Structure to design on (578 residues):
């Protein structure tokens, strides 16, 4: 890295540098258009000036309800240039959910696509009107804020464990995360999840910080394999749910281009899915582990996929430890709770001192995941510590049940969870989705699991048409617990 | 919930506890029909088997029983009858 780049701490400065040094390099590519770094910098500057002329108060927090991928990214970069804090009020969320998040964060402005994007108590600003004004003025002063230490980007967790926790990152945090991430500076990166998803937005910012190319599906419904081929994608970033879509596409239309690597993260990636992708979609499969609070923690490369379902070794500069219940360090291969220090990581949650005290301790972030670090330094995640079941004093991890059930030839995906019992504590049970065209009864699966797990086996297995999932593809175990009611007398 | 469902839950609980008779057709079929009974001593239930039987009863029927409570029942038939009575109450 050159000394000049080291001094740069804001996205506006970084964008200006890319626009100067590689003006014609593609920054954003959609099925309809390509925006070079030169054009992107100009668009961002014009929009920022128009927002400033429109009276935007950069000290207040702005909510973004912007559906267009390019519009959303340009608006994000313009708000960063003005030093204006922001939070995505995602269009896919119900109005009540957006309003609750706006209230929690203290949103004063909403930059939206249409009037019903407004939320009570915040001033609504129509993005298209501001954008028209920006194009009419075609003026870019290029004078931006330079304080990289103010929290500007508010992100929410997935919310699978209740009300989403909120973290706020300053530009220097995001810059540090981007510098520690995979080097995208010469890559063309497609992440099909919409930019309104927090981590999708963050990955796009990393790519732009590094000077790479964001390929945006932007509503295109083409198969993933076709999108990758058409846009010469070199990195395809997926959730496990998108992993299933990739497999469907690869089986229907053939594998990914040889130059496309795939990274899957955000939830457990079962070994069956890894093997299927390696066989049918690409031999260049990477599986990573990270959190909203830290970004990237570890990555497994294509040679590392085995029954352990490792997420690979943490890179240099990202210390990871596994602790026993007495908070001493666990031995290699011994299970415990994980803690991590990563460049640019969060230091607490917005408006939640209790959760902050629980998860941020002694300069480390403790996500609440159970893990082992094997003798070869590979990290294996065993699920949420909160998810561990205790039945009659026996510790049972959901993931051990899930891994066994998914070895059954009929099972596509399994989810294990507890049935609360006053007598026994938590009785392990499970629900499964079967592979297409396969049939199997719950009793057979109980017996199959019992043969491998003995007393830690699920006592009941429900076969469902589809497991309930959130928009990111994570299985919603709370819904399974609620759905698997006790039998009617 | 009918008597056969209750008896099926008991068979599954015994199987989970490794009680060999529960897997044998000469025991299963007449027990499910209500024409064969057995005492807990005859089945030689150890503590693990008693726990598994209670867990199976709770999961299948929603009735909580402590393993020690099994001693109150003279035989599997008596347990089945009590469970049916509880479920119908």
């Amino acid at each position: 890295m050159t000394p000049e780049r080291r001094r740069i701490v804001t996205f506006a400065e970084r964008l200006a540098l890319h626009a100067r040094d590689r003006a014609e390099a593609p920054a954003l590519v959609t099925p309809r258009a390509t925006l070079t770094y030169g054009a992107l910098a100009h668009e961002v500057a014009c929009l920022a000036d128009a927002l400033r002329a429109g009276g935007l108060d950069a000290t207040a927090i702005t909510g973004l309800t912007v559906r267009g991928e390019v519009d959303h990214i340009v608006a994000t970069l313009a708000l960063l240039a003005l030093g204006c804090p922001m939070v995505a009020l995602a269009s896919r969320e119900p109005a009540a959910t957006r309003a609750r998040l706006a209230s929690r964060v203290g949103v004063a402005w909403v930059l939206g696509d249409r009037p019903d994007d407004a939320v009570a108590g915040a001033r609504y600003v129509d993005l298209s009107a501001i954008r028209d004004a920006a194009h009419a003025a075609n003026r870019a002063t290029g004078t931006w804020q330079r304080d990289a230490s103010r929290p500007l980007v508010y992100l929410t967790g997935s919310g699978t464990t209740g009300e989403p926790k909120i973290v706020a990152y300053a530009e220097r945090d995001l810059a540090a995360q981007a510098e520690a991430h995979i080097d995208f500076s010469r890559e063309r990166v497609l992440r099909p999840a919409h930019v309104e998803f927090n981590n999708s937005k963050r990955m796009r910012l990393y790519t732009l910080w590094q000077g790479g190319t964001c390929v945006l599906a932007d509503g295109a419904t083409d198969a993933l394999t076709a999108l990758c081929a058409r846009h010469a994608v070199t990195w395809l970033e997926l959730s496990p749910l998108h992993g299933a879509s990739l497999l469907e596409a690869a089986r229907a239309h053939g594998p990914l281009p040889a130059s496309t690597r795939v990274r899957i993260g955000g939830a457990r990636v079962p070994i069956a899915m890894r093997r299927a992708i390696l066989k049918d979609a690409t031999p260049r499969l990477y599986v990573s582990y990270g959190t909203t609070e830290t970004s990237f923690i570890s990555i497994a490369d294509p040679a590392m996929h085995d029954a352990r379902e490792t997420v690979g070794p943490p890179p240099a500069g990202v210390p990871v430890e596994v602790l026993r219940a007495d908070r001493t360090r666990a031995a290699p291969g011994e299970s415990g709770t994980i803690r991590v220090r990563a460049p640019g990581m969060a230091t607490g949650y917005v408006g939640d001192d209790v959760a902050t005290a629980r998860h941020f301790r002694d300069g480390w972030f403790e996500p609440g995941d159970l893990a082992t670090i094997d003798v070869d330094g590979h990290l294996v995640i065993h699920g949420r510590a909160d998810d561990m079941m205790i039945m009659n004093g026996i510790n049972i991890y959901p993931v051990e049940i899930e891994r066994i059930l998914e070895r059954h030839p009929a099972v596509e995906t399994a989810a294990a969870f507890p049935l609360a019992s006053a007598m026994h504590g938590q009785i392990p049970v499970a629900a499964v989705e079967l592979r297409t065209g396969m049939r199997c009864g719950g009793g057979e699966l109980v017996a199959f699991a019992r043969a491998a797990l003995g007393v830690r086996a699920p006592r009941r297995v429900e076969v469902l048409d589809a497991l309930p999932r959130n928009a990111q593809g994570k299985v919603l175990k709370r819904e399974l617990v609620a759905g698997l009611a006790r039998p009617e007398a | 919930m009918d008597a056969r469902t209750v008896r099926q839950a008991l068979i599954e609980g015994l199987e989970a506890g490794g009680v060999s008779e529960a897997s044998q057709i000469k025991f299963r079929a007449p027990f499910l029909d209500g024409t064969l009974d057995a005492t807990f001593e005859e089945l030689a239930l150890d503590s693990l088997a008693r726990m598994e039987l209670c867990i199976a009863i709770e999961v299948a029927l929603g009735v909580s029983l402590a393993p020690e409570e099994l001693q109150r029942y003279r035989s599997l038939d008596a347990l089945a009858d009590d469970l049916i009575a509880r479920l119908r109450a």
About this structure: Residues 420 and 426 of chain A are 5 Å apart (CA to CA).
